[in-house]
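Input record (Table S2, row 349):
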Amino acid sequence: MKILITGGAGFIGSHVIRLFALKYPDYQIYNLDALTYAGNLENLKDLEHLNNYTFIKGDITDENYINQIFDKYRFDAIIHLAAESHVDRSITDPLAFAKTNILGTMILLNAFKNLWKDNWNGKLFYHVSTDEVYGTLGTQGLFKESTPYDPNSPYSASKASSDHFVRAYGETYNLPYVISNCSNNYGPNQFPEKLIPLFINNIIKNKPLPVYGDGNYTRDWLYVKDHAIAIDMVFHKGKNTETYNIGGFNEWKNLDLVKLLCDVMDEKLGKEVGQSQQLITFIKDRPGHDLRYAIDASKINNDLGWSPSVTFEQGLLKTVDWYLENSEWLQNITSGNYQSYYDKMYLHD
Ligand code: NAD
Ligand code: DAU
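Output record (nicotinamide-adenine-dinucleotide complex):
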C-alpha cells in the first residue's frame, strides 16, 4: 500500500510518519510537505535511512504539481494533516488559512477522485481535523460527533469548511473517507508558538509568560503519541464515512496548567518551586477566544478500543524532558523569523 501523509514534517505529522514507517515496513510512506515555518525535517532525521519512507517537497495548493505526483505515485490512501494550524496567526492572516486548509484540501480531494473514481476499492481519504470546528462549550457538556459545527476563528472556520468538502466528496463521488476531530495536542516537536512549548521556552529564558485574558479558558490536552496511535486505529479500523472524536479526558484551565508547568520546570531546572510562576503576565485576550473545549471520546473508545496510554502528569514530564534535552532544536527554531513573529505578537501589545 502506498500512503501519502501530508504535513509530515510538522508536529503531529512527524509522529504519525514515524509510527507508520516503523510499524508497517510493507507500506510505502510518502511525506508531502511544503516546509513552511512549521515544517522541519529535523523532526524526521532518524527515519531518513528507511527504504519505505520518501519525502516530497510540495505545496498542496499547487494543483498542477499535486496532479503530477498523484499520477506518478498513484497513492492508495491519504492521511491529510497539512494545514495552517495556529489560531493567532489565523487572526492576523485569515486568507492564508482559507488557501491551505480549504483550497489545499479540495485540490487533494480532486486529485484523489480523478485517480480512483472508477474503482474506489481499498482506497481511503483520511482527513485529520480539530475539535475547534464545534465552537465553544459553556462550563458544562462535551463535544460529541453529533455536535453541530459552530466555528469561531478563521482557523476553525477553514477546518470546518474542509471537513464539509470531504463529506461532500463522499456523498457526491462516493469517495471513501474518515474524519477525526481531536483536542489540543502537546509533546515533543511542537512549534513554540503554541501554549506549552512557548511557555517552556520562555521559562528556560526567564521571559514573561503571556496568559491571555484571565486564564480561565479550558482545553482538553492529549499527548501527541496517543493521537498518532488513534490515527493508526481510525485508519485501519474506522468505518467509511464515519467521524471519530479524539480527546484526552483531561481538561485544564490555562492558568492551572501554566502553574503546574512552572512548578515542573522549576524542579527540572533546580530552581526554588514557585519562582517561575512569578513570570506569569496577564495580557490582552485573544479575539473570539473560545471558552472551553472538551471531547466525548466514548465512540473511539467503545468502537475501536482506543484510550490515552499516558496520564497528563507523565506526558508533561516527557515533554519537558524532551525540550530540555533538545535545546539545539529549540534554539534553531526560535531564531530568525520566529523572533520577529514573537516580537509582533507579544511585544507590541
Ligand atoms: P503544524 O503547524 O505543526 O504542521 C503543519 C505542517 O503542514 C507543517 O509541516 C507545514 O510545513 C505543512 N504545511 C502547511 N501548509 C502546507 C501546504 N500548503 N502544503 C504542504 N504542506 C503544508 O500542525 P500540527 O499541530 O501538527 O497539526 C496537524 C494537523 O492536525 C492540522 O490539520 C491541524 O488542524 C490538526 N490538529 C492539530 C491539533 C493540535 O493540537 N496541534 C489538534 C487537532 C487537530
Ligand atoms: O483544540 C485543538 C486545537 O488546539 C488545534 O486544532 C490547533 O491547531 C492548536 O493550535 C490548538 O489550538 P488552541 O488555540 O487551543 O492552542 P494554543 O496553544 O494556541 O492555546 C491554548 C490556550 O492557551 C488557548 O486558550 C489560548 C491560550 N494561550 C495561548 C498562547 C499561545 C495563552 O493564554 N497565551 C499564549 O501565548
